[in-house]
Write a structure and sequence with these properties.
seven-stranded mixed sheet, 15 helices, GMP Synthetase, Chain A, domain 3, 25 strands, alpha/beta, Rossmann fold
């Protein structure tokens, strides 16, 4: 027996038109390269978005052509976020922090036909323009930067391109049509492409609006510090438009003081970014009015318990940890505490907030034995590979023969994370499979060691890697960044850890570095540290 409901496509034009009809008065604020902030209403933004879609037609972009962006978080970028997919094209956000050869690979692999570039970023992409094989048009968005145009290339001006165009009409009949694509970062070899459908993006947007997920709503003022090229800005750009929330886009103003100013001056209610961002912003907020803030979603890498607690102590608001990947659109779990946890003491609650949390509605998570592939019990102790399934979890990689090894025989995504799941369903990631320290046949969680080290008041950052050992195969090496103006010794770090972790987990050595290297999306780059300290000699014990 079939139901009687209408069969309407779950597609982005509905989200766009909802904002256009109901919230034309709401505002998008954008930071510019000049330091000023531009203000634009949703109504103005919607009209420009329709004109941009017509411009894509006039440029001759294919019906499913890839429209690439090399941009900051701006209102113009948000116009592209909807103009491309709502007109049937595929938005392709390029990561501005990837190595040059990776950008060239991605542009050519995706077969981008046009690239929209913020003027302040021309210096990064300019030397690569001659390596792109399929790009037919280059469009520069003037963000106020004085950057010179590279010689030897023809550029179109964004405002000239859309000015005077007739507004396009939007209609997507097939909800499984591609809407956008992102490439993974930090993988071995070339990045891998993930293609999101209208349906998956629509469902992910609705999930982000759930009260027990992030709960975006019309009353919010949302600051996505997370880049729009990082897994669709964690879905916040779509969720803000769908709910009619005001948006604050930082543009190139990505320094901690600038972000703190936006939070305070624009009365931001929801601000999302990676842990390294919030480490820098916290001291800039001291003594200022942050009473409008209701939640601080954080992801990209594990949130140190000490960082979350520092926000709770200073702002009265702990960080809300979420977990996901490019492959999961990305939000898959959120560490919001349930009512059953209300009576726990603050330390127990802090431990739970430092976990990756419960799968959001629509996503299934499990841990599996890495040898047998069998599902492991939810007992909080059985460690295995975290695997994911759901309507916004990818089932494949775009045109990539490496895909089969990333999925199980029954179609679940193999995330590469090592995790446990508690009886309550809380996921706690203990490490990446490639980052776990394998000592004498036993595993040492680099993530848990890092969290303990970073709880020391004199430690700004810490990363733990495994280095070769003649007897134990690997032993942990702690790479520590000391807070400016503080002093710390190897012995003081080890003494601090004594009693906090098992004795055999204690690092064999501590090295002090100026900064932990970061990946293109702000995660600790342990690959770089492993290369740097590959020949490090551990002291005899």
């Amino acid at each position: 027996m079939l139901g009687t409901m209408q069969d309407r496509p779950l597609a982005l034009p509905h989200i766009f038109e909802r904002a256009e009809k109901f919230f034309p008065h709401k505002e998008i604020v954008t930071g510019t390269a000049t330091g000023e902030r531009r203000r634009r209403s949703y109504g103005d933004w919607a009209a420009r978005t329709r004109q941009l879609a017509t411009a894509l037609d006039d440029l001759g972009i294919s019906p499913d052509g890839r429209v690439a962006t090399f941009c900051w978080n701006t209102d113009n970028h948000l116009e592209l976020y909807f103009a491309a997919p709502c007109s049937g094209r595929v938005l392709h956000t390029l990561n501005i922090r990837l190595f040059p050869e990776q950008v060239t690979y991605i542009v050519n692999h995706a077969e981008d036909e046009v690239i929209f570039i913020d003027r302040s970023l021309l210096g990064l992409i300019g030397p690569l323009l001659g390596t792109f094989e399929t790009v037919r048009h280059l469009v520069v968005i003037d963000d106020g930067a004085p950057t010179e145009f590279p010689d030897g290339h023809d550029f179109l001006e964004y405002e000239d391109l859309i000015s005077g165009r007739e507004p396009a009409e939007f209609a997507i009949e097939d909800e499984n049509r591609a809407a956008s694509m992102c490439y993974t970062s930090g993988t071995t070899g070339n990045p891998k492409g993930v293609v999101y459908t209208h349906r998956s993006t629509y469902l992910h947007t609705m999930a982000a609006m759930l009260a027990d997920t992030i709960g975006t709503c019309e009353r919010d003022v949302i600051l996505p510090v997370v880049p729009m090229f990082h897994a669709n800005a964690w879905g916040l750009a779509h969720a803000a438009v769908a709910s009619g929330a005001d948006l604050v886009m930082p543009g190139p103003q990505m320094t901690p003081p600038a972000i703190a100013d936006m939070i305070v001056e624009e009365k931001v209610t929801l601000a999302a970014g990676v842990p390294t961002i919030w480490m820098g912003v916290l001291p800039e907020l001291k003594g200022r009015d942050t009473s409008a803030l209701r939640t601080i979603p954080c992801g990209g890498s594990a949130v140190p318990k000490s960082l979350s607690e520092a926000y709770r102590e200073q702002l009265g608001l702990p960080i809300l940890q979420a977990w996901g990947m490019t492959e999961t659109s990305p939000v898959a779990s959120v560490a919001g505490l349930t009512s059953a946890m209300d009576d726990l003491d603050e330390d127990a609650k802090a431990d739970l907030r430092a976990a990756q949390g419960m799968a959001v509605m629509g996503v299934e998570l499990r841990v599996a034995d890495q040898v047998t592939g069998e599902s492991l019990p939810w007992d909080g102790e059985s460690q295995g590979e975290l695997q994911a399934a759901g309507p916004w979890v990818t089932a494949d990689y775009y045109n990539d023969d490496r895909a089969p090894q990333s999925f199980t025989d029954d179609g679940w995504l193999r995330t590469g994370d090592v995790a446990v799941i508690t009886p309550e369903g809380f996921v706690r990631i203990v490490d990446r499979t490639k980052d776990v320290v394998k000592s004498g046949g036993e595993w040492i969680s680099s993530v848990e060691l890092e969290n303990e080290i970073m709880s020391h008041p004199a430690v700004a950052e810490a990363a733990v890697i495994g280095v070769p050992h003649p007897k134990w195969s690997e032993r942990p090496l702690a790479c520590v960044v000391v807070v400016e103006g503080e002093q710390l010794t190897r012995e003081e770090v080890l003494d601090y850890l004594d009693g906090r972790v098992a004795k055999w987990w204690l690092p064999d050595d501590v090295v002090f570095i100026d900064e932990v290297p970061k990946t293109s999306v702000g995660k600790f780059s342990k690959k770089d540290l492993r290369e740097r300290f590959a020949d490090h000699e551990l002291p005899e014990t």
